[in-house]
Design goal:
The protein is α/β, with parallel strands linked by helices. It is built from 14 helices and eleven strands.
Length: 324
Amino acid sequence: MRIGILAYEGCFATEVFAVTDLLRIANRVAHENGIDSATRFQASVIAASPTPVVAAGGFTIGAHRWHHRFDLVVVPGFDVSPTDDLSARLADRSREVAFLRETASHGIRIASVCVGAFLLGEAGLLDGRRSTTSWLFASQLTRRYPRSTVCAESLIVSDGPVTTSAAFSASLDLTTAIVRDHLGAGVARATARVTLVSENRRSQAPYVVESMVQTTSGPFATAVQRWLVDHLAEPYSLPRLADALHVSTRTLLRRYGQEDGRPPLAFLQEARIATAKRLLADTDVPIGDIPRRVGYQDTGTLRRMFLERVGIGPADYRRRFRSS
């Protein structure tokens, strides 16, 4: 299987070499398991020209000139902040975008890591498809490419010939999935264990830091949200909320929906889970006391909501993310 990893100015070198190195180890594992060399991976780092590419941080990457004789092209992410001018950054990558568009026209599969998904979006490859990226940039991906259904909590999303994955370390999850698809579950499992890579991550929801997620709510929705947070532990009452904002319930739902795109209760549930996550990770508050602090009736309700929205239970979350 011929795989090209696309290098370009400002890309993350780790996301390039995580793919090449893990594939190399998978080839070794395959050899030790008697798998013929003809079925193993041939990985190449490619770029617009064969001259070294300057990655994020000033590190140089040697690369071959790109072509279209691959089975799969992997696009790493690049160094960017949520407050940066993303349009300007993407405009600088017009050659890469054109290459990806042409690559897709040749029937070659394409995968991305983190904000590499934006390059796929610029090439039109996300239109009509499900996608994902780092949770930190999921809302921007949604706004910029409205014809794509962004699965913000998913770690890896495959839709036809296009696969997108979450942030940074998801390059390892993506590569493990490639190994599993091409060389089988046994080789993928052995490779993951040799390299200490997780074999079963499915969601990035446990890693979300809600305070870092950009919101675009208008002033009315912001006032509603502030009131809900101030009364987080109290039972939700739409009439009481409307009275506090001096509007009717119908007006509240209409105006809030226009500014936030969802009902107030959806925000409240997210705020309750976010507060529970903070209490689990940063405090010694017993798990049994947390439900009443965030507005749930009992531990069972909190566990059910946690499993639904975070993907793991409160006790597992505390074990994994507890501050030292």
